[in-house]
Design a protein that fits this description.
The complex is a heterodimer of chains A (198) and B (117). Chain A is α/β, with parallel strands linked by helices and 198 residues long. Chain A is 30% helix and 26% strand. Chain A is built from six helices and seven strands, in the order E-H-E-H-E-E-H-E-H-E-H-E-H. Chain A has helices at 30-37, 56-60, 100-104, 123-132, 151-158, 174-197; strands at 16-24, 43-48, 69-80, 83-89, 107-114, 136-141, 166-169. In chain A, a hairpin with a 2-residue loop joins strand 3 (69-80) and strand 4 (83-89). The longest helix of chain A has 24 residues, at 174-197. Chain B is mainly α and 117 residues long. Helices cover 37% and strands 9% of the residues of chain B. In chain B, strands 2-1-3 form a three-stranded antiparallel β-sheet. The longest helix of chain B has 13 residues, at 76-88. Chain B starts with 36 loop residues before the first strand and ends with a helix. Classes of the chains: A alpha/beta (198), B mainly alpha (117). At the A-B interface, strand 1, strand 2, strand 3, strand 4 and helix 6 of A face strand 1, helix 2, helix 3 and helix 4 of B.
Chain lengths: 198, 117
């Protein structure tokens, strides 16, 4: 569509990028979680709906109005000059679940944020990552004033398998979000190492 | 939903996002993802369309497709198509990291980095 560039401006610097996904129900605190550890204030991208959205509008959009864009928030953690991590919040409402494939393809792992007041809201995300074999951990977001259920009880209520880590966190507290992220990265590490040994 | 969109610079009315791609919603290169790193390696000439040139200007330093979209307030799907054009024309170089190829040592570096935050 246009000619090749005349001269190379600069050499290509290879920077590896890794994508982690933060999933969970609407309003569970995904953007707060991302902003707790991101080195930049979370940015928003709008994903324009394309052909994948066909049928979704008819089936679930209450007023048949065509929605053209969905907002996704993301943050960034620079590991070193050759490696960058991106944290993407999934669009929370279930009617945007068709977008998850594009977002989750190529993800290293996922954090499923759960709210004990609305545990069922995280089932969609749990089912999704289990079915895709994407490594994930569950972070139970403890909101102020919400009753803190013991983690084993939450694990049982969510029905997650024994080898899936479940941790408590407060999305507003950087230290607890760090623990959740490290738990995910360690989980991915352990799975990889086990696969190598086998 | 449409009513809630923030106003875009220079536009009063709603513009269909894929107008600037000529209606194309898929890039010629289907390996482009939100986290794919992009870097400018060539300087666009006068024959390069305005929206394409803005993208090249944005990724002088390596950055992801998502960051380009956020910076230029363009829909992600549009950025994917335009970046595909620019890679084909030799203005941009991409680095896509397959998660399967991420080494254990890289995971260790990530864990150390998060711990140090």
């Amino acid at each position: 569509m246009f000619g090749r560039s005349e001269a190379a401006m600069r050499p290509h610097r290879r920077v590896q990028s890794v994508k982690l996904v933060v999933a969970g129900g609407f309003g569970v605190g995904k953007t707060t979680f991302v902003s707790a550890v991101s080195e930049i204030p979370p940015l928003t991208t709008e994903a324009a709906m394309t052909s994948e959205s066909r049928g979704v509008d008819d089936a679930t959009m209450v007023d048949q109005k065509t929605t053209t864009t969905v907002a996704m928030d993301f943050g960034r953690i620079t590991v070193d000059e050759s490696l960058v991590m991106y944290l993407f919040g999934t669009p929370g409402q279930e009617r945007f679940a068709f977008m998850w494939d594009d977002l989750c393809d190529g993800a290293l792992g996922a954090v499923v944020l759960a709210d004990t007041r609305r545990l069922a809201d995280s089932f969609v995300a749990l089912d999704y990552f289990e079915a895709r074999d994407t490594p994930f951990v569950v972070a139970v977001n403890h909101f102020q004033g919400s009753y803190h259920y013991p983690i084993p009880e939450v694990r049982e209520a969510l029905g997650v398998l024994d080898h899936i880590p479940v941790v408590a966190c407060d999305a507003r507290e950087r230290e607890t979000v760090k623990v959740a992220l490290i738990t995910l990265l360690q989980h991915v590490y352990d799975l990889r190492r086990a696969a190598l040994v086998r | 939903m449409r009513d809630e969109l923030p106003p875009r610079a220079g536009t009063q009315d709603f513009v269909r996002p894929f107008v600037i791609t000529g209606g194309r919603t898929r890039a010629t290169d289907d390996s482009l993802r939100v986290e794919t790193m992009v870097q400018a390696i060539g300087r666009p000439g006068a024959d390069v369309a305005f929206e394409h040139a803005r993208i090249v200007d944005t990724c002088f330093e390596p950055c992801s497709l998502a960051e380009i979209a956020a910076e230029l307030r363009m829909a992600l799907g549009v950025v994917v198509v335009l970046v595909g054009d620019l890679v084909e024309a030799g203005y941009l170089e991409t680095t896509y990291s397959d998660p399967v190829e991420i080494e254990l040592s890289a995971l260790t570096r990530m864990i150390e980095r998060v711990r140090a935050l």
